[in-house]
Amino acid sequence: MGFAELNPPLMLALGETEIKIMDLKHPTVQSVKAEGFPPEEDAKAIALNRLFTTFPQNNDIADVLPKVATLNSLYSTNIFAVVPVAQHIVNSSIDNLLESGNIQAVLSIEQTPINGKVRRNYSFATKYCHWHQPDVYPIYDRNVKRALWDYQQQKPFATFSKKELKNYERFIFIIRANFKTI
Questions:
Q1: How many domains does the chain have?
Q2: Which of 45, 55, 120, 137 has the most CB within a 10 Å radius?
Q3: Over the stretch 116-139, which tens digit does the pLDDT of each residue have?
């Protein structure tokens, strides 16, 4: 039996384990606006928008550090060394990239050297760039990955693997080719 024949909620049996797949309806601009977000998410968005609007530049640690710390706290991005990450953003000189909507902004800040090792902060980097230009940089995180994958399982819309979603250029292509942006 394929996914198309299953009734909601969708269940996939793997041996003794059943995995529930989100029963997703195809969103429209109207349905998303009508549904809205929980008040705590609205408050987060308002706070982050205000912070990133107040400090749009990324060439001074005093402007970047509050953005890194707040984003990390509100989105639980697991950045344990906020000062080195903030300094890495300053050193990456991303302002022109952000302004032009260049994906290199994400790529420049996702690989952060900390104590001699390079840590990949992919989800954080997409969120950081998103809050500078929300209409240009889509956010990638585990929730987005799960939603895309569950959509794909219910009604295939593109050919991709979960691993490909961690390639920002490919991720953007999948999003823009298959979903209208709001």
A1: 2
A2: 137
A3: 999 999 999 999 999 999 999 999
